[in-house]
Amino acid sequence: SLEKPTTWQVCDSNVLIVGWAFHKKREITAVRARIEDKSFSAVYGIERSDIALGNSNIPAAHKSGFTIELTAPPGRHEVLLEAQDARGKWHLLAAYPLLVSTIQASLDVPTVWEQRQGQILFAGWCCHHDQKISKLSFLCGDTSVECAYGLRRKDVGEVFPDWVNSSESGFEVLVDLPPGEWHVSLEAELENGETLYFQAPKILTVRRYDIWQRSADKFEEFSSFIEAIRQRARERKQRLGRIVPMPWEIVKVIRQLGKIYRQQKQFTAPGDLLPPAGFVVPKPIDRYDAWLEVNPWNDRARNYLISRLQSCREPLPKISVVMPVYNPPIDFLKSAIASVINQVYPNWELCIADDCSTEFTVAENLKDWAQKDDRIRITFRTENGNISAATNSAAALATGDIILFLDNDDELTPDALGEVALYFAAHPDTDFLYSDDDKIDTKGRRFAPQFKPEWSPELLLSYMYLCHLCAVKR
């Protein structure tokens, strides 16, 4: 068995072969590699305790390791690995196709080497250490297509800074391939007239694209279009409280439907250009979902907030989170309280006023939370006074510098109180502070963000945009 090289396509004429070999019955006295008429002897008999462990009943396995250093000129070769027995006779162990090339290359596209029939995009990079590539061709079977070569590849230039034109070594080529299995390679013509080859490490499989598959793709395309419309309808209802558009909104809605269809459509008709091989047309994604995906709350964000809090020179305020409670779903209540307990900023208290809830589980859960954390303070009202009276009862418990209002079905992000504390510390003249907010469903998915302007009396005349989250100085 061989452990090195991991690939028989190399860019160096010197190749190191590492492996092991033994026979259950016959003694192996030597190992060699042959390329054409040249022979390269191995250092044989290297101790391999790992091999002996799995073959304890075969003494020869203990010292079965070998290494071979061979040299091969650029081009295609066949490496014959042979073993000699005690009588001096050589036996073939294995044969390997070796390609020695002085060019470096990579096929970045396709990423999936099973494609459907039609035009397929191949893209990547190719460069030489000390020669400029004047022409690059794509080879597949009897097909030879010249590549668009010289595209910008800053990443390659950074890895191979001394190679000729490495930062402009990108290529692209569109090839129409029939069904079958294909060996793919690149042919590079250098300025000095030399021609070198790069063999793709995988075999490309092209499957037939018949009418049934086209029908299935069309059905999938239509299903995706319908699902996209349903998703937009759900978002519209969550945002506006209704799905049916007003008369003056009909034209806009029709345009949006057309945009959704164009986003969902995949080219499947005969003669159409297929998406690049290895590329799947992405489903439309909400911009807020995209932002959340690349800006998650993580340890790095937590540590950054902690460092800002620790380096703050101004006194940081104590924040009293005020929460009125009346018969909320227990899971929502638990999530709301847990979001306060999980704050990075520790200088807070949670003041809760139960507005005479009729569900006995509410009081039980509140008492349990108060026993877990002494920063939670609770009062139980003897009569229902609605949200304003309950908020005032909760605020009466507060001892902090800042009062922050939180409903019993709301949640705070882990950095919320820390950001509030830092802002009040940096702006001591601030009396009232509010933040952006979004909604969250029962599965934890966030949606419908509300990005608020600075103080806007005109917007306030339209609706109460200040709440969630809002804080006032006492």
UniProtKB/TrEMBL annotation:
<dbReference type="InterPro" id="IPR001173">
    <property type="entry name" value="Glyco_trans_2-like"/>
</dbReference>
<protein>
    <submittedName>
        <fullName>Glycosyl transferase, group 1 family protein</fullName>
    </submittedName>
</protein>
<dbReference type="GO" id="GO:0016740">
    <property type="term" value="F:transferase activity"/>
</dbReference>
<dbReference type="InterPro" id="IPR029044">
    <property type="entry name" value="Nucleotide-diphossugar_trans"/>
</dbReference>
<feature type="domain" description="Glycosyltransferase 2-like">
    <location>
        <begin position="320"/>
        <end position="437"/>
    </location>
</feature>
<dbReference type="InterPro" id="IPR050834">
    <property type="entry name" value="Glycosyltransf_2"/>
</dbReference>
<keyword id="KW-0808">Transferase</keyword>
<dbReference type="Pfam" id="PF00535">
    <property type="entry name" value="Glycos_transf_2"/>
</dbReference>
